[in-house]
Amino acid sequence: MDSRIIDLRTGTDLVTDVTRDVLEFCRGRGDGLCHLFVPHATAGLALIETGSGTEPDLAGAVDRLLPREDVYRHRHGSLGHGRDHVLPAFIAPSLTLPVLGGAPALGTWQSVVVVDSNVDNRDRKLRLSFLAG
Which strand (E) or helix (H) includes residue 20? Predict the structure, then answer.
């Protein structure tokens, strides 16, 4: 298995598009699986359509489901930081994609995104791993 870590800066926006990084990592690898993992307690990975209003829709859904108010037992950090730690239970920190002919088999409108609402720590890592078929 081949693996690479990519450094990211998140937290300004809830959604950080990493599709290009995934495409680049898979290029020329043939068939197999690409596994993505964010090793952080406040981040997850998702497949969504970007650039069509989905990002603010997702942010609104997260705000409704996990309000930023001070309602959490986990209380260190900025207001509502407990919500950041609950987020990965709903948006998983890992994702596996089929790769065919050196390209992830994404749907027409699918993009790979990191979802992270933690404004206290914006430096993130994304591990990409490829398992040949």
Answer: helix 19-26
Tell me the C-alpha distance between 67 and 113, whole Å.
Answer: 21
Distances (CA, A) of 67 to 6, 11, 18, 40: 30, 16, 26, 20
Residue whose C-alpha is closest to residue 36's, from 54, 21, 51 = 21
pLDDT in tens, 59-111: 999 999 988 887 778 777 676 788 888 899 999 999 999 999 999 999 999 99
Can you give the residue ranges of every domain in the chain? Answer: 2-132
77: exposed, middle or buried (C-beta count within 10 Å: 0-12, 13-18, 19+)?
A: middle
| Tokens 């990592």 belong to residue | 25
- 2-132 is classed CATH 2.60.120.460: yes
